[in-house]
Amino acid sequence: MSDDYIWTVIVLMALANFLVRFPPIAIVSRLALPEPIGRWLGLVPAAVMGALVAGEVLRPDGEYLLTLSNPYLLATVPTALVYAKTRSFLGATLAGVLFFVAVRALLDWGAL
Amino acid sequence: MPIFLGYVPVGMAFGVIATTIGFTTVQAVVCSATALAGAGQFIALNLMQDGADVTAVIMATTVVNLRYVLFGATLSPYLRGMPLPQQALLAFTLTDETFAVNVNDRRRALSTGASMAGVGAVAWCGWVAGTAIGALAAGWIGDPSRWGVDFAMPAMFIALLIALAEERRHIAVAALAGVLAIALPALSNIGLPLPDSWIIVIASMGAATIGAVSFRER
Does the predicted model carry a pTM greater than 0.80? Predict the structure, then answer.
């Protein structure tokens, strides 16, 4: 991976990320959104997260893993429960990583 | 304070993975400090690792972060009359967690321009510090997957999904997007290959559009 490639991505990513955040605040704080667009926007965040989670869990590294011995899938349930219970991103992220390591170890030992 | 702590481990995971795929420590820290994009940065690493071209990487990170258009639009009524430079600063530090904290504070009438700037600054420090720690520690951590960092990003997405899917229509749309994200790659079997970088875009926009048409009443 070349240095130029990495720096180009860094600079463009900084620009792109500012451009999705700033105009909506600057413009929308000065006008009202048409209702259908507002409704569509209201559904985008959940849709993006649903697609991301499904892809990460059921197709990690671009390979289908549609089995019950998928460690990503097995770690998902307790992670979701920890977040639902604690409402803490830190707690859920750390707990998720621990669950994942534990589940993977159990799978390796043939315990699951 | 909780928000600062929340960003450190995910920032560390970013620092470790970025240096593992070939970033220098400086590049990893500059990337976090200027983009502050959480999920968008991880997606970028994923694609860069596969040698995707610059356009595909930027498209994917932009699409993953399109939700900020909504967050910005949602926060904007609170920001009426605020000068543009201050709005620009808040826009730069707008993330999933700062959005949630600010909306929550606002409901309890605790939020002011200064407190929102403070929340943003704290989140930025946590994210950048986490990245630096992760990038520097990557050398002696060895193979990062041993420590389960493969699951740091999915775990964060799972928590965000639950935080965002508060109503039934959100759950329905998220489930539909998930099904699409899993089904679309299979199209390559029938001779219609889609690049992975587009799957998330197409799946989430498709699901949101179907949802917006189906759930007319708000």
Answer: no
